[in-house]
Amino acid sequence: MSSSAPRRGLRGRRGECGVLDQLVTDARAGQSQVLVLRGEPGVGKSALVEYLVGGATGCQILRATGVESEMELAFAGLHQLCMPMMARLDRLPGPQRDALAIAFGLRAGSAPDRFMVGLAVLSLLAEEADEQPLVCVVDDAQWLDRVSAQTLAFVARRLLAERVALVFAVRTSAIASGDDPLLALRELTVRGLRDDDARALLDSVVPGRLDERVRDRIVAETRGNPLALLELTRGLTAAELAGGFGRPDARPLASQIEQSFLRRIGSLPDAAQRLLLAAAAEPVGDVPLLRRVAERLDLGADAAGAAEAAGLIEIGARVRFRHPLVRSAAYRAADPGDRRDVHRALAEATDPEFDSDRRAWHRAHAAVEPDEALAGELERSAGRAQARGGIAAAAAFLRRATELTPDPVRRGTRAVAAARAAFESGAPDAALELVAAAEMGPLDEVQHARLARLRGQIVFARRRGGEALPLLLDAAGRLEGIDDGQAREAYLEALGAAVVAGRLCGSGGVREVAEASRAAPRGPRPPRLADALLDGLATRFVDGYVEGASLLKPSLRAIRRTAGRDEDDIMRWLWLTWLVAGDLWDDETWHELTTHAVRVARATGALNFLPLALSYRAAVHVHAGEFDLASALIDESDTITEVTGNSPLGFASVLLMVWRGDPRAPEVIRAGSRDATAWGEGRAIGLAPYLLSVLYNGLGRYQDALANAQLAGEYEDLACTGFSLVELVEAGARSDAPEVAAAALRRLEEQAVAAGTDWALGVLARSRALLCDGPAADPLYREAIARLRRSRITVHLARTHLVYGEWLRRENRRVDAREHLRTAYEMLHGFGAGAFAERARRELLATGESIRQQTVDIRESLTAQEAQIAWLAADGKTNSEIGAELFISPRTVEWHLHKVFTKLDVKSRNKLRGALAARV
């Protein structure tokens, strides 16, 4: 319930206060709200947060504050926010409960993924909000540890129908735009006060009369920043103000405000300054801990009183600074020796059983000389952090452990481990620095070889082109005779890098890399997935498609048989296995591989793997004509990559645009091709004209399709060249370019016969039919339809009905033509393949057929996520199961299903399947 008493607003903030008032009102009504308050230091974000909290009567308030010194401690910010809700932990589903408990160090276990942790936090918030509306505020969010920021952004995107308001306060430009997980959330930019409000505020704090010209100058220099108006005039005499306050100063405004706080801190007694320093170094605001530290530093009771009397700090249930700039000023301005003394006291006062990692972190900041015992303690903390899923924290612990290690050999070993952890945490630049540091140490041959491979992996992750090739090949050669298994993996990574680099690979191209890979030592028996891929791909690029297919086809069959037992290998090599399966026209492996990959990724919450699995699964749905399901998975993948800050995976979304005939597709494709050129991804350059050839064949622009298909076929790109040959045959047949089409058909025949799948042989039969004259084409079209019916590639089945119908009409077999054109139109229209459907409609009209008005299309009535939830509910899944699978709360699932029931005019779940099937 909201209070009936009038509330006093903030000066000059009527609009902002109105937004916050409405936010609380909506949250109380069950409409989740998320808002990021973004502005420069001192502009009033914290004041608005306090206004929000003060007006949230009847709501439970959860708070967290980002602390700069804790940015490398995983889940620190999230732990602050969730502490009051931990009594509900046992109510969560087992996997969520375990993930959050491990993340917070409450129990041991394998590293939880951040998505499972995020789902647990989402469930906790939903549980808590069922009893009382929640207002969650995160101040100084720019200083949250990365994993907490990513997890809270993930939660924010999935709040919909819960009685929850989540508000972040963030400094402008404090985070690089590419690294800000909050960037795409709803924002309210907090600006300086208008001049009249700024003048009124200034008048309220400056004693006596202030010259108008001086006042106007102050307002202009502070740009209406409230904290600057309050702080920069403090301590200045009337004479100083009259003489022209605020001489021109090139320092940023935040620095000027901090200097004001520094002057106030410097005027305090030494004991009070040291107490402020201790409070600044202790991020949680733990009052008993601060008192223990004060005793160890021999700070009298009057130290806290002096700091509070100066208006710089409040010591109540928790320690709170007047403003975050006070904290940073108190810490940064302190003498380094004083900082070390404070960290040492904090370490000694911290319970080694309850919070051993923070204790080690304080000890590390107190150390000056190398200390093997402390380095070992930090290494153990890194292990615990990694077990909780805090790989970035593990990297930070290992980096400091490296710096404190006296023995050069052991220091090199720890530097290698720190580099690996930094790389896995998504910090390739920091990882390269650590690699360079490790290389300066006395490493043995094994360490040098593994470090060389790590450098190659980092370079490939940063720039997925040919730059990593020589590094990975060098690493593979070094590993031979030392670790043959790793040597073969390094050769496979090099071959994969060459595949990605494609036509930008250099003079020798992928063949040269494949030849080098064939010199790799023999692999173990039975071969691992990596061994089978290496042998098959090397053969494919050296001896040709047919010879490579003879090795790779059995490997793909083995993958389908053992996918459930080789989860790590499937996840690790999915990106390459997917390309191999596509190159061999193996739709069954595509289906099995992606079904399993998505299932494993969802079950384990694999953060970096799930978007890739979703993207590939979406492409399978596109080829199956299931565009709505593809769209839902693409949206989910994009959301996850936005939250994590990783590069988006654009192939599936562009593939869907192309098949839908989206007029925006050419510009999107060309922009992607320009980016690929800059990044050295030659295969993506080859994909661009292939995708355009599909689009233009759908639009009936056959000359454009011909030109693009020819470009795509100029280089042997894995899982691209063969597809482009199919488009080239059709475009050539329709563009009066029979020689070009015939040459493409000969190349296609070699691949399709060697692949031997119904998909390959189906499109081959269709391509042969397109180039046939007279009655010989008829059985080929029928063969193509029969084969493609047995495949999962429904879009090409529909296209085969289309070209068969077109041929029948030209043969004056109008009745037969109508049958196939009608089938093609209904299939293509049902998929949402607009350009191809329009082509079928025009051909059907030319036969004299009148096209009846279609029934209401499910795509027009259900959103992609509603359709996905509806199908899952139709399969018998509960709201909790659907929520766990889609990373949303059960209440949000219920909200979506209510809309689905209304749109489909059904009243129960058991009617969903029939309603969905009838309207697709």
Explained architecture:
The protein has about 900 residues and is mainly alpha-helical. It is about 65% helix and about 5% strand. It contains 47 helices and seven strands. The strands form two sheets. A five-stranded parallel sheet has the order 2-3-4-1-5, sandwiched between helices. Strands 6-7 form a two-stranded antiparallel sheet. Strand 6 and strand 7 (about 320) form a beta hairpin. Helix 25 packs across helix 26 and helix 28 (about 565-585) packs antiparallel against helix 29 (about 585-605). The chain is globular and about 105 Å long. The two termini are about 45 Å apart. The model is unreliable at about 1-5, about 240-255 and about 855-860 (pLDDT under 50).
Question: Which characteristics define this entry?
Answer:
66% helix, mainly alpha, two-stranded antiparallel ribbon, disordered N terminus, five-stranded parallel sheet, 4% strand
Strand order of the largest sheet: 2-3-4-1-5
Helix content: 55-70%
Q: Taking all residues together, what is the mean pLDDT?
A: 86
What is the radius of gyration? 32 Å
Query: What is the number of strand segments?
Result: 7
Classification by helices and strands: mainly alpha
What overall geometry do the principal axes of the alpha carbons give?
Answer: globular
Intertermini distance: 45 Å
Strand content bin: under 5%
Number of helices: 47
Report on the biggest sheet.
Answer: 5 strands, parallel
Question: Low-confidence parts lasting 5 or more residues at pLDDT below 50?
Answer: 1-6, 242-253, 853-860
